[in-house]
Amino acid sequence: MDDLHGCVLALTGGVGGAKLALGLADVLAPGQLHLLVNTSDDFEHLGLSISPDLDTALYTLAGVADTTQGWGLAGETWNTLQALERLGGDTWFRLGDRDIATHLWRTQQLAAGRSLSEVGAALAQRLGVASHIHPMTDDRVRTVVHTASHDLSFQQYFVRDRCAPAVTGFSFEGIASARFNSAVGDALRAGVFSRIVVCPSNPYVSVDPILQLPDLWQALRDSAIPVVAVSPIVAGMALKGPAAKMMSELGVPATALAVAQHYGQRYPGLLDCFVIDHSDAPLAGEIGRLGMAVAVTSTVMQQRQDKRRLARFVVREALA
Ligand code: FO1
Fold this sequence. Notes:
By secondary structure, the chain is α/β, with parallel strands linked by helices. The longest helix has 15 residues, at about 95-110. Strands 5-2-1-9-10-13-14 form a 7-stranded parallel sheet, with helices on both faces. A 3-stranded antiparallel sheet has the order 7-6-8. It has a single domain (about 5-315), classed as Rossmann fold (3-Layer(aba) Sandwich). It is about 40% helix and about 20% strand. The chain is globular. α1 (about 15-25) runs parallel beside α2. Ligand FO1 binds near residues 14, 41, 72 and 155. Ligand FO1 binds next to α2 and α6.
């Protein structure tokens, strides 16, 4: 177990980021990991308030996630969805029987006036998770996916349409008036964190909505805490999900260099170190010229030991 003399704040989206989050939870002392999780994929469906990325983090750290698909619960059954299908209801978003309990409970608690943070903390406590899982905001922010012909909500694009439409851009409805998570703001000011990690999540639809919350990236930059980001693109392919496809549709080469340029241009001075895979080592010189340190290691996380090894690397060796 690594005693860093401080906590780690990790910014994450869904399945790809949760892998490194699990490695970080494994190598840090209990309670030392704080996750700041994207909530712009959240949506209301069948009358339920669904927070996919918060639940992916929660289930992964609780050791109850379906590790094959990356989201939802292991050993899930689908009776409710099958019954709904017979009724002619909407079944494109697959909600398992036990997962539905989480959404029912969250929906009820939010309707009773509790915040997303309070509900998340209670869920984490009940599932025995020692890490702190913070929604990026308690306010409503929703990703809008733009295509040449129409706009889509994120889950319509991602799940219903299986990322098939070519994207032309993204916007985050509600972001201008959203306030970033106050517990994370307090912890930043109190000097609780010794390292900030940007997980290998999708830069456009997972990390951008977090960093574009008013004042957040500037607060992280000005904190003087080292910020280390892991590239979600390895050898021209996304570790998980549609990041590489999105990049080529946006006219950006699907490379680790382009991800570093994206972060460098949008959030100047934020990243102290960019971690890339051995297969992308030839890009190190050009990334370094963007004004950040570059660290090269194995970033593909298949086994639990890969997650722990990368976690140790980002908290200990990168920037050492
Ligand atoms: N992803 C899918 O690809 N198909 C699904 O039917 C689906 C259902 C689902 C239910 C609950 C939940 O918490 C997550 C779910 N996800 C599903 C994952 C989710 O849509 C994405 O992983 C994230 O929004 C992207 O970060």
